[in-house]
Design a protein that fits this description.
- The protein is mainly beta.
- The chain has one domain: Sandwich (Immunoglobulin-like).
- Helix content is 6%, strand content 41%.
- Strands 2, 4, 5 and 6 form a 4-stranded antiparallel sheet that branches. The protein has a 3-stranded antiparallel sheet with strand order 1-7-3, with no helix packed on it.
- A hairpin with a 6-residue loop joins strand 4 and strand 5.
């Protein structure tokens, strides 16, 4: 188990203290919204991710319609999204909130 350090004003802050204390923070993150009818593509900021990140989606719906979204093959630069209404492609425009996370410099999972 990693030791915990309490940082206080005026004390020396060692680099090793930072390394141990921030080991659980993601390497890279990005979030946003994309809108589409049936499909959409999330384009990540160029160079943000060095590997395909983990992507989490939430469909924004002003009604109680059964709408869902699924991901295609995610890359380090984009993620294709399919938007569904039941078992068919949605014919209504839907907004998707998304979050992408890369936990370490070489892998999305952490």
């Amino acid at each position: 188990m990693t030791a915990r350090v309490t940082f206080t004003n005026g004390n020396v802050l060692n680099a090793s203290d930072l390394t141990n204390s921030f080991v659980y923070l993601p390497y890279a993150m990005e979030s946003g919204t994309v809108t589409g009818t049936g499909s959409a593509t999330i384009n990540f900021t160029a160079g943000r991710f060095s590997v395909a990140p983990l992507v989490f989606l939430t469909v924004v719906s002003g009604s109680n319609a059964a709408t869902s979204a699924t991901l295609g093959t995610v890359t380090s630069s984009s993620a294709p999204v399919s938007i569904w209404s039941g078992t068919a492609a949605s014919t209504s425009s839907r907004t998707i909130n998304w979050t992408a996370i890369q936990m370490t410099s070489s892998t999305a999972a952490g």
